[in-house]
Design goal:
The protein is mainly alpha-helical and 412 residues long. It has helices at residues 2-41, 44-76, 85-112, 115-142, 146-165, 174-196, 205-211, 216-241, 243-255, 257-278, 282-308, 312-319, 323-328, 330-352, 356-389, 391-410. The chain starts with a helix and ends with a helix.
C-alpha cells in the first residue's frame, strides 16, 4: 500500500515541479519585460532612478520571503492545504512588512527630495501590494497548487502588457512606469485572493514573527549575505578596474540568467516537495538533494559553455558593446556559478529540514570567501581576475553547505 501511494505521488510531484518552473519563468519574464520597457522608453537618468526603486523592491521582497513565506513553506507544506490559518498569517505578515517598509521608503523619499523623492514615495505606496502578490505565489506552493501561482504571474504579465502597450500607456518617466508596474501587481494579487478564496490576517503578524523567530531572522541574514556578495565584487571591480570591467561581469551574469531562473525555480519547487518527502523517509531527502546539487552544477557549467559559444551577432544583440568582454570571462564565471548552483542544491535541502542555523553557518564564511577572492582577482586582472578569483570560493562554499546538510540529516 505504501509503495502504491508513493508511486502515485511521484507523477503529482512532477506536475507540481513543472508548474513551479513555469511560474518562475513567468515571474522572470515580468521583471525582464519591465526592465526592457523602461530602458527603451526613458532617458538614462530615468532608467537609473527606476533601478534604485527596483533594487529597493528586491531587498524588501527578500526580507518578506525570509520572515513570512519561507517559514510557511518549510513548516506547513504538509498541512497548508487543509489548515489555512498559517497561510492567512503568512499573507498578513507579508502585507504588514510591505506597509512598514513602504512607509520607510516613502519617508526616505521625502527626506531625500529631488527627482528621486517621487519615485521612492510611489515605490512605498505600491510595495504592500507587490509583496502580497509574491506571498500568494508561495502560499500556493505551500498548498501544493503551483498552477495557481503561475496563473497569478500570468495575470500580472497580461496586465503589464495592457499598462505598457495599451492606448493609455505612459512609459516616459520612471514614476509612470512604477505606477503601472505596481498597480498591475496589486490587481493580480487581489484577483488571486479571490481565486484562492483566502485573505491575509493582519492581527496575527506579530505572533507569526515570534513563533518563527528561529527561522525568519536567519533566513533574512542569509538573504542579505548571499545577494550582496556578488554586488560587492561588482562594485569593487568598478572602483579598481573601471566600469567596463564591471560591465563585463554584469553582462556575463545576464547571460547566466536562464540557469539563475532554474535555480530559483528549483528552490521554490523542491523545498515543499522535500518537506513532504521527509515525512516518509530522510533517505529520500538525502538522495534527492545530492542529485539536485549535482544536476544544478552540471547544467550551470554546461550553460556557461553554451553562452561562450554564442555567435557574435547573437551576443551583440543581447549585450551590445559589452559582448566581447563578457564572452572572454564566460567560462570562469560559469564555473564559479556552477559552484553556487551546487551550494543552492544543498541549501534547498537545509531549508527542507528547517536547519536555518546550519544554512547560515555555511553562508557566512562562503560569502566572505567569494568577496575576498573576487576583489583580490579584480586587483590582479580586472574582470577576468574577479571571475577566476571566485571559482575556488564558490566551490568551497558548496562544500560547506554540503557538510552542513549531511550533519543536519544525521541529526534527524
Amino acid at each position: 500500500m505504501t509503495s502504491g501511494i508513493a508511486g502515485r505521488s511521484r507523477p503529482l510531484a512532477a506536475r507540481r515541479a513543472a508548474w513551479t518552473i513555469v511560474d518562475q519563468f513567468l515571474s522572470a519574464a515580468t521583471n525582464l519585460g519591465v526592465g526592457v520597457v523602461v530602458a527603451r522608453h526613458t532617458s538614462a537618468d530615468e532608467y537609473g532612478v527606476f533601478g534604485v526603486a527596483f533594487a529597493a523592491y528586491a531587498v524588501a521582497l527578500g526580507i518578506s520571503r525570509a520572515l513570512a513565506t519561507d517559514p510557511l513553506v518549510v513548516r506547513y507544506s504538509t498541512t497548508a492545504g487543509v489548515d489555512r490559518r498559517p497561510v492567512r498569517a503568512a499573507l498578513g505578515t507579508a502585507l504588514v512588512i510591505g506597509g512598514a517598509l513602504g512607509a520607510l521608503g516613502a519617508i526616505a523619499g521625502l527626506l531625500v527630495g529631488g527627482h528621486l523623492a517621487t519615485t521612492l514615495v510611489i515605490t512605498g505606496l505600491v510595495l504592500p501590494g507587490l509583496l502580497l502578490q509574491d506571498a500568494l505565489r508561495y502560499a500556493a506552493f505551500a498548498e501544493g497548487r503551483p498552477s495557481m501561482a503561475a496563473r497569478n504571474d500570468a495575470l500580472w504579465l497580461l496586465l503589464l502588457v495592457v499598462a505598457f502597450v495599451g492606448p493609455a500607456r505612459d512609459v516616459s518617466t520612471a514614476a509612470a512606469c512604477l505606477v503601472g508596474w505596481g498597480l498591475s501587481g496589486a490587481v493580480a494579487g487581489l484577483s488571486t485572493i479571490a481565486m484562492m478564496r483566502i485573505g491575509p490576517s493582519l492581527v496575527v503578524a506579530a505572533a507569526w514573527l515570534r513563533d518563527h523567530r528561529d527561522l525568519g531572522p536567519r533566513f533574512a541574514i542569509e538573504f542579505v549575505l548571499t545577494s550582496g556578495g556578488f554586488q560587492l565584487v561588482l562594485f569593487a571591480t568598478a572602483s579598481i578596474a573601471g566600469y567596463a570591467d564591471a560591465g563585463a561581469l554584469r553582462g556575463s551574469s545576464v547571460l547566466l540568467g536562464p540557469v539563475t531562473v532554474l535555480s530559483a525555480g528549483a528552490m521554490a519547487a523542491a523545498v515543499p516537495e522535500l518537506v513532504r518527502a521527509r515525512q516518509r523517509s530522510s533517505a529520500n531527502v538525502r538522495t534527492a538533494v545530492m542529485l539536485l546539487a549535482g544536476g544544478l552544477a552540471v547544467v550551470t557549467a554546461a550553460w556557461g559553455v553554451v553562452a561562450r559559444l554564442l555567435p557574435d551577432r547573437v551576443g551583440e544583440a543581447l549585450l551590445g558593446d559589452t559582448w566581447p568582454a563578457a564572452r572572454s570571462i564566460m567560462i570562469p564565471l560559469g564555473i564559479a556559478a556552477a559552484g553556487n548552483a551546487a551550494a543552492t542544491g544543498f541549501a534547498i535541502g537545509l531549508r527542507s529540514l528547517a536547519a536555518a542555523r546550519r544554512s547560515l553557518a555555511a553562508a557566512a564564511p562562503a560569502v566572505v570567501l567569494v568577496i575576498v577572492g573576487g576583489v583580490t582577482g579584480a586587483v590582479i586582472d580586472g574582470s577576468r581576475g574577479a571571475a577566476i578569483g571566485m571559482i575556488a570560493p564558490t566551490w568551497i562554499g558548496a562544500a560547506l553547505f554540503g557538510r552542513q546538510f549531511r550533519l543536519a540529516v544525521r541529526s534527524i
